[in-house]
Every structure is written in C-alpha cells, then in structure tokens.
Amino acid sequence: MKKFFKRYRSFLIVLALLLLITLINKKIGFKAFDIATFSMKEMLLVIPPVFILLGLLDIWVPRETMIKFMGEGSGLKGVLLSILLGSAAAGPLYGAFPVAAVFMKKGVKFMNILIFLGAWSTTKIPMFLFEMSSLGTSFATTRLLIDIPGIIIIAYLLSKSVSKDYVNKLYVNAENL
C-alpha cells in the first residue's frame, strides 16, 4: 500500500487539490475537472497508436540499421533523418518521448535524438502547411529556415554540455524500459 501511495503521490495530490478547489468554488472545480477529463481522453486516443508504432519499430528495424543511419557515425545523414522523422510525426509532443526512448535502445546518437525532439515540437509538416495558408508562404518559410538551424545548434550545444556519464545513464535507463 505504501508503494502505491509513493508511486501515485503526484496524482493523489493533484486530485486532492482539485477536490479542495471544488469545495471552495464549484464552478472553477467542475471546469478544471472537465479540462482534466478532456486531456485524459485526448491522451488515451494518442498513446495507444504511438505504442503500437513503437512496437513495430522495435521489432522491424534492426539496431544495426538505426546505428548506421542515425548512430554515432551517421553525420549529416543522421541529422537530416532526425529532422525528417520529427517533422513528419503526428501527435502532441508527449508522444515523442517514448519514440526517443526506443531510439536510445536502438543506439541513436544523443544529438540526433535531441534534433528529433526539436523537430517534432517545431517543424511539423501539417503546422507548416497551416502557417502557409494562414500567415503566408514567406512567414512560414522564414520561420522554418530559422528553426531548423536553431534546433541543430541547440541540440549540438546540449549534447556537448551534458556529461558523457549522464548520457550513458539515460541510455541505460532506456534499455531497462
């Protein structure tokens, strides 16, 4: 029982706060509950397909292939593939983290994982098309041309500033998932 409370401590605290808010102000409490319920439904619709695709990626793509195309010696090919995979992805950013964990299991270079996460959050193709139709081609193209080098620079700086020991611990943790 103690393990249960420790594991779900954050959830239970938020639930208690939600109940307290509802006791103080029912309108705000019910609105918060509606938002939380909507978010939970949205997550439940996104996460299962992501995990199915991850299972297929884990089984169908050999580790050696991932290392060849996105591992330590991949160079520009790995960077471009990371940007392409992140840009073509669908779904909210929280869907990218399980993919990143599988990439770690497969031996993808840390910098390429960071680029993938940056591309997923910033350069999605549907978002680019929406921006082109809503804000104009020049704005959308300019934003994309600024974002891509920015993602690469940030990923490079982060990969150089994080210690090798810490990165190795991340890879070990990903293996244990």
Number of strands: 0
Element order, helices and strands?
HHHHHHHHHH
- Distance from first to last alpha carbon: 23 Å
Into which percent range does the helicity of residues fall? over 70%
Our count of helices gives 10
The percent range for strand residues is: under 5%
Mean pLDDT: 91
Computed structural class: mainly alpha
List low-confidence stretches.
none
Principal-axes geometry comes out as globular
Main sheet specs:
none
Tally the structural domains. 2
Radius of gyration: 20 Å
Organism: Mobilitalea sibirica
GO cellular component, one term: plasma membrane
Family: Belongs to the UPF0718 family.
Keywords: Cell membrane, Membrane, Transmembrane, Transmembrane helix
Keywords:
single chain, 177 residues, mainly alpha, 2 domains, 10 helices
Can you describe this structure in just a few lines?
The chain has 177 residues and is mostly helical. It has helices at 2-7, 9-24, 26-60, 63-70, 76-88, 96-105, 110-122, 125-135, 137-161, 164-175.
Describe the protein.
The protein is mainly alpha-helical and 177 residues long. The protein has 2 domains: 52 residues, no CATH class; 117 residues, no CATH class. Helices cover 84% and strands 0% of the residues. It has 10 helices and no strands. It is globular and about 55 Å long. The model has no long low-confidence stretch (mean pLDDT 91).
